[in-house]
Structures are given as structure tokens and as C-alpha cells.
Known about the structure:
Radius of gyration: 22 Å
Strand content: under 5%
Structural class: mainly alpha
Number of helices: 18
Shape: globular
CATH topology of the largest domain: Growth Hormone, Chain: A
Oligomer: single chain
Amino acid sequence: MGRKAGILIAVYAAVLAINIDVTIVNVALPSVAGELGAGTRGLQWVVDGYNLAFAGLVLAAGGVSDRYGRRPALLIGLLGFAAASVAGALVHDTGALVAARVVMGAFAALIFPTTLSIISNTFTDRRQRAAALGGWGAVVGVGVAAGPVTGGALLTYFYWGSVFLALAPLALVAAGLAFALVPESRDPGTPPLDRRGLLLSAALLTLLVYTVIEAPARGWGGAATLLGLGGSAVLAVAFVAAERAAAHPMLDVRLFADRRFSAASGAVAVTFFALAGFIFLITQYFQVVRGYGTLSTGARILPVAISIAGASVAGGALAPRLGTRALVVSGLIMFGAAMVWIAASAVDIPYWQTIVPQMVLMGLGMGLISTPATESILQVLPPARAGVGSAVNDATRELGSTLGVAVVGSVFSSVFGHRLAAGAFARTGHLAEAQDSVAVTFRLAGGDTTLVDAAQRAFMAALHTGCYVVGGLCFAAAAAGLFALPGRRFVAAARPDPAPKAAEHQPA
């Protein structure tokens, strides 16, 4: 048990390193906007450059780690992530920062499925695995919690690039622990990389995210937007057809015929769609609208992060007893209710009396979803192919995060720009400049109470619309989960291991 505890320490350290990045970057967005001149779309790309590379490569990375070794994959991922973080801290324009974020996402894609795969192969007993996954989910929550506070403290005393520079030492520590504590394991029988599937999936995600992020500027009904959405649909059909025809597909789309597997994957995607969209907006609300400093903003996001961590542990313990359906549906309803509650809030709502309960409700809901849904996904595949199952979980998570920032950010941008055009800013001569960036809008407003009021009204109208979109999606997912998610008595059907038993190598 001591050896297993050591493995968990190393894996959790790796998970912490890449999850701090999620919220440490969001807290830095207003600073990046001011220092690099990034507008709302530029900020979306700073976040989604990372998410896009992660989502596009994580499926292939899961297979690579299974085939060539989970320990070296984890080490290469952590070392590359550290190097890319340093590069991101040294750039001087938005485009270069987005490029660095893409590289960080590529290496993170190599790390994340490997951590779940190591857990699945180390803990074969369901209760032990559920507990280990609960800890994994809690570390994700700790990363979400530590990111804003760490980023806020760094930005209080140092320049904006310090939030990226600080990730490098943590990744290097995680690499040292992995080198010392994690044993080698691999499945040489894992098929070779599906290059056609990788190219099609990357093209699909890139075109879809690009189209959605650029839609507010080009018009949702414009020719470029419609062509982009149509092209994405064509690529999606081509990807499914290619994977069904491939002898060794990157993603076995037949897995989604199991409604329990597909529903659990959908729940993960919806959850991270909601969280990423919320974090993207709330950091700007705290810093730009309410005028809080970076450290104060980071501290104010702690309730949602702590709630996620606590509920993730509880979800891991309760899943074998209550079943995935009860927990995930309850979590989705709680998350949706929190979003609708936020959508009914005024610009100056009190923090402790209203915002904290909203974030706690949201965090508890997410915690109840994440661990049980992840465990349900991992039950479908045998331990030797755990990299594939964990990669599907990570892909749905990152796909949800990517689309959350793209869709919610674009809906926000559209409503915000429309409201500004209908208000006092239309007479200032700076409307186009204001519509491009929230930070610029409030800077242009200065001390003019009429303009400040117009900016606040536009921001809150856009925030409310984004929250209604997220809340509606959560409620729809909860309704689907009632019919599709596994209940308490569900036991996954045994699936034959495609590789011979002797092929799996893991030292004692």
C-alpha cells in the first residue's frame, strides 16, 4: 500500500501542475488585455489555444502512452509543459502567447490521460479505484483553487508573464516525483497511431472553434460563419466514417453506442463547458466591473474550487453505493440552478450573502458529476486499454472547456457589443473599440457615470445571457441522464482485452 501511495503522490502532483494552469490564466486575462492589447476574441484564443491542442491530441496521446510506456509519456509531457510555460512568459504579443499556449496544451494532452491510466492499472479493486479517482478529482479542485490565488499574488507583485513562469517549477517537481516513484507500464499490443483520424479531428475542432470565436465579428448569420459551421459538420461526418472504417481507430466510435458510456462522456463535457464559460466571465466581472485586484479576485473564486474538491471526494465514495445516475443528475441540476440564480443577479450583489452561495452550489454540483462520470467511463474498457478510456474522458473534458470558452465567450461578446451600440457609447466615436474589449470599454468610460452605467448594463446583460445558455444546457443534460446514465445496480459488461495478457508489462 505504501508503494501505491507513492504512485498516487506522483500522479496527483502531475495533475496539479496542469490544472493550476486552467484558472491561473483566467485571472491574468485582464492584465494580458492591458499589457498586450488583446480584445475579447484574443483572450478567448489565449484560453482556447491551450484547450484546443489538448482536446485535439489527447485521444492520440492516450494510445501513445499505452503503446510506448506511461512513465516516459508522463515525463516527456511534464518537461515539455515546463519549457512551453517559460516560453509563454517571455513573449511580447498576443499571437506569440497563443502559440505558446498551443504547445502547452499539446504536452498537457500527453500528461492527463497517462495519470488516469496509471491509476486504473494500479488500483484494480473498484472501491480503491473510486477512492483514488476521488482524490484525483479533489486535486483537480485544488488546482482550480490554487490557480486564482497564486496568479493573483504573482500579478500583485510581478508582471503578467509570471503566471506562466511559475508553472515550470511545479511541472519539474512533478517530473522528479514521477521519475522516482512511478513504475513503467505499457501495452505493446496497442495499435499504431491513427494518423487520418488525428488529422480529421484536429481540423474539425480547429475550424469549429475558430468559427464560433470569430462569429460575433463576422455575424452569426454571415457567409463565413455558415460556411465554417457547415464545414465542421462535413468534417465530423468524415471523422466518424473514417474511424468506423479504420482497422485501429484513434477513437472507437462504437463505444458511444453504449448509452451509459456516451451519457457519462456527455456529462463530463457539459460540466467543463459550464465551468470554463463561467470562469472566463467571472474573472472579468470581479476585476473590471467590481474593480477588485488580482489577488482579491483569486481569493473570491476559492468557494467554487473548494466545493469541487470536497464534492469530488464525496462523489468517489458515494458512486459505488448510490450509482452514477443519482449523483450526476443531481449535480447537473445543482449546477444549472446556480447558473439561473446568477442570471437573475444585479451588478452590485453582495459577495458573502449571494455570490458565495452561488459558487458553492455550483462547485458541489460539479464535484458530484466529475468523479462518478469518470469512473463510469473507465469501467467500459479493460485496464490494459485504460489509456484509451482516460483519453476519452480527458477529450470530452477539454472539448467541453474549449467550446465553453468559445460559445459562452462569443455569446457574451455578441450581446455586449449589441447593448453598447444601443446605449450611450454609440455617441462617443469609440464604439468599435469598446465593443472589442471589456477592459477598454470601462477605461473609455472613465469617471463618466452615464458611460459607466451603460458599460455595466451591457456587461450584465451579456453575463446573464451566457448563464442562461449554460443553465439550459445543464438541465437538458440532466433530463437525458435520467434515461441514459447507469444506476446503482449497473455492472459494466465484460469486454475482451484486445491484447494478450502477457503483453501488458508492469513491474511488481
